[in-house]
Amino acid sequence: xxxxxxxxxxxxxAPVAAHHSHAMxxxxxxxxxxxxxxxxRFVNPHVYLxxxxxxxxxxxxxxxxxxxxxxxxxxxxxxxxxxxxLMTVGAPVSVKVNPLFSGGLSGNYTNLVMxxxxxxxxxxxxxxxxxxx
Length: 133
Hints:
The chain has helices at 2-18, 74-79, and strands at 31-43, 46-53, 66-70, 92-99, 106-114, 119-121.
């Protein structure tokens, strides 16, 4: 019986242990990345974006900077109105992130603005749904 209880406990804890914290991101700092959306992955546990960073005038950075952006879960993003059909690879995008403490080119998004008018925040505050285009 004790062995069965240990197995049940291990199975109950496994999904929680599989998810990570956001401790690697600096929540006290916000960095804005402007560029071109080069990849979108709507796959749990998180939605991921890749952005080729540019100067504000749209000219590419030298050396090239490709940022990996972590968003919330697919379900959370859908509840906030952000679905794959609203994300167009090749479109200009501006995203604010809490960057990695390590200084790597990655961050946890706090705000997303796409040229087609799609706006989304990690908290859902000050956000109005935009109809699919």
